[in-house]
Every structure is written in C-alpha cells, then in structure tokens.
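Protein record
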Amino acid sequence: NHHIHRCSDPDLPSDLQKGEIITVVYYGSYEKDYLQITGPVAKVDPFWNSLQIGNTVLNFSEIYEINSDT
C-alpha cells in the first residue's frame, strides 16, 4: 500500500511513526533545487515544525511531498 502526501501547507501527516522508512522530496535552499532523501523517521517536532530523517532535519515548509510504503 503506497501513500503519497503532498505538503501544500506547513503540516505533515499525523500518522508518521518513528522508525518508519519514508522518502521526502524537499527544496534545498542552498542548492536552489528539489532534493530527495530516504530513511527512517527519527523525530517529528510540531513545536519547531521540523522532521528529522536520519541525521537530516527538514523544516515543514521545505517539504514538497512524503512517500511511504506503509
């Protein structure tokens, strides 16, 4: 069961679980391009509007879409 969530506003699907393997397409402001990262969800922080995948921390506003296979 494949799920794609497009992030048109600064929120994330509430069903993301720590350890879940996801692929995130996000806008890298330094690279000025869309990038993709795949890895386990390490942390979802609604207070700071951030999602951590492995060692990479992304702000919700940078995220274009989230793909998960769950």
